[in-house]
Amino acid sequence: MLSILVPGIRNYLWNDLYCNFEESLRDESFEIIFVGPNPPLDLEKKNVKYVCDYGNMIRCQQIALTQAEGEDIHWCSDDCIPLPDMMKEALKAYRGLANKEILMIKYTESDNPSPDMWTDEYYHMYGYPGTRASQIPRHFFGLNMGIAKRADLEYLGGWDARYKSCIGHFDLAVRAQFAGYKVIPFPEIVQHVAHTPGVTGDHGPMYYAQTQ
Predict the structure, then answer these.
(1) Mean pLDDT over residues 89-114, rounded?
(2) Are 185 and 205 in contact (CB under 8 A)?
(3) Is 42 left (phi over 0), alpha (psi -120 to 50) or beta?
(4) How far is the C-alpha of 194 from the C-alpha of 191, rounded, in Å?
């Protein structure tokens, strides 16, 4: 079974997220663990778990990992939309990987239409806070979204921030690659991230969830 970790700070796309995962995975068995301050709109589905927490996205993702029952883990943002059939294809590619390999998921963003997001180079560790240190190779891949074995994520410590990068996904990627794991980029775009504008930007809902 595939466990999908969703840090539920922004849940305005919850119905679309769930329905598109269902369509994109088709007959695959999956569960969604949704962690955040507000429950998703439909908790009647047997394959959805909800944990109430007012922490940031990385904390919510760490909590979701502790609740996962699947041996395979997919992590994503809470405003992502899986594209038709692409999660199924990505999962097929993941199952063909060797030991100590993690599948990196590519995505597009509403507020970043750059065609560079289709290229592998876009996902290298260029310019992120804390990742410019000399001991972190620039060719390392980031892991904003991916699929990995739960045992591997637990071994690596999940989304810790020991390099103080302020971006837990990239911190995980650094530790994974230093530990000898190989990050394999899936060649196609799998998900679309639907950022929405606001007076405080895309992180506005996160701010309000933690301060009010």
Answers:
(1) 91
(2) no
(3) beta
(4) 10
187 three-class SS: strand
Measured CA to CA in angstroms, residue 78 lies from 51, 95, 179, 180 at distances of 14, 24, 28, 29
- The answer to whether residues 61 and 75 touch, using CB atoms and an 8 Å cutoff, is yes
| CA separation for the pair 25, 199 (Å, rounded) | 35
SS3 content of the chain, % helix, strand, coil (to 5): 35, 25, 40
Amino acid of residue 198: G
Structure tokens at 211: 């301060």
Q: Where is 151: in which H helix or E strand?
A: helix 150-156
Tell me what the pLDDT averaged over the chain comes to.
84
Task: Determine the pLDDT at residue 179.
Answer: 95
Looking at residue 124, the DSSP 8-state letter turns out to be: B
Query: Could you tell me how many helices (H) and strands (E) the chain has, helices first?
Result: 6, 8
pTM of the model: 0.88
Point out which residues pair with 103 in neighbouring strands.
147, 184
DSSP output for 57-112: HHHHHHHHHHH--SSEEEE--TTEEEPTTHHHHHHHHHHT--TTEEEEEEEEETTB
Cα–Cα nearest to 123, from 109, 110, 133 = 109
Looking at 70-79, 101-110, 165-174, which range is the least confident one? 165-174
